[in-house]
């Protein structure tokens, strides 16, 4: 069974998806980390980020591997390195070109093949897994999402103002909505959950309720 959890930056998708996967005994896939990994790797390799041909070649040959919460690129643990503001500012160069999205979409489908999986991102329920048995769209107001992101950065030892986070987030939201392929939107059959007034545990429970409802429907169809 595939469970997709999509939504804008700062909606809490990664932590909720990870917790939901653990609760269900499913594998977890953080697709945003995959795009960040390719962005970070290209920057480290000195690739000009406007050179789509070189970026596509890099993405096709990069070796991405998952180990619980850790992501490796070509055998190196880059789980922390990919969360810097510099990577965030440049991720659009990797996330926008359809050729690169196609490459990572194929990797995501390969990882999911034959597995019970919770996957999160921007386009999992619309583009990558349009036939997923359960789709969820998490969202929250821009201010709330920026507040959460600021707390995450502070916990990682990075001091940034709320306004700095909000400005960067608004730009990312615009880019995500305008992307020609894989743009941010809720699938027509997704359960939309607005999380502003909810604690993390409440969000997790709401997602689990949605998944269990999907499971019940699937069982009815099978019967």
Please summarize the sheet with the most strands. Answer: 5 strands, parallel
List low-pLDDT spans.
none
How many helices? The count is 10
Oligomer status: single chain
Distance between the termini: 17 Å
User: What is the strand content?
Assistant: 15-25%
Q: How would you classify the helix and strand content by structural class?
A: alpha/beta
What is the β-strand count?
8
The H-and-E topology, N to C, reads as: EHEHHEEEHHHEHEHHEH
What would the principal axes of the Cα set say about the shape? globular
Strands side by side in the biggest sheet: 2-6-1-7-8
Radius of gyration using CA atoms only: 17 Å
Features:
five-stranded parallel β-sheet, 223 residues, 8 strands, 10 helices, alpha/beta, 54% helix
Protein architecture, described:
The chain has 223 residues and is an alpha/beta fold. It has 10 helices and 8 strands. The protein has helices at 13-24, 31-44, 52-61, 85-90, 92-95, 98-112, 124-128, 142-155, 162-178, 200-222; strands spanning 2-6, 27-30, 64-67, 70-73, 76-77, 117-121, 134-139, 191-194. The radius of gyration is 17 Å and the shape is globular. The model has no long low-confidence stretch (mean pLDDT 90).
Quick take:
This protein is α/β, with parallel strands linked by helices. It has helices at residues 13-24, 31-44, 52-61, 85-90, 92-95, 98-112, 124-128, 142-155, 162-178, 200-222; strands at 2-6, 27-30, 64-67, 70-73, 76-77, 117-121, 134-139, 191-194. The protein is 54% helix and 15% strand.
């Amino acid at each position: 069974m595939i469970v997709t959890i999509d939504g804008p930056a700062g909606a809490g998708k990664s932590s909720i998806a990870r917790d939901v996967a653990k609760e269900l005994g499913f594998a977890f896939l953080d697709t945003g980390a995959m795009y960040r990994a390719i962005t970070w790797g290209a920057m480290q390799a000195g690739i000009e980020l406007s050179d789509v041909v070189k970026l596509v070649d890099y993405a096709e040959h990069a070796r991405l591997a998952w180990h619980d919460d850790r992501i490796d690129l070509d055998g190196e643990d880059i789980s922390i390195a990919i969360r810097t503001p510099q990577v965030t500012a440049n991720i659009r160069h990797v996330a926008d070109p359809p050729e690169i999205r196609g490459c990572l979409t194929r990797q995501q489908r390969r990882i999911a093949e034959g597995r019970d999986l919770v996957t999160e991102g921007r386009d999992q329920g619309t583009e990558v897994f349009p036939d997923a048995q359960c789709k969820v769209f998490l969202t929250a107001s821009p201010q709330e999402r920026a507040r959460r992101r600021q707390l995450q950065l502070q916990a990682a030892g990075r001091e940034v103002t709320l306004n700095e986070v909000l400005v960067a987030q608004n730009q990312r939201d615009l880019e995500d909505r305008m992307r020609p392929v894989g743009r941010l939107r809720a699938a027509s059959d997704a359960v939309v959950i607005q999380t502003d007034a909810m604690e993390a545990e409440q969000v997790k429970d709401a997602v689990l309720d949605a998944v269990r409802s999907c499971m019940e429907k699937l069982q009815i169809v099978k019967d």
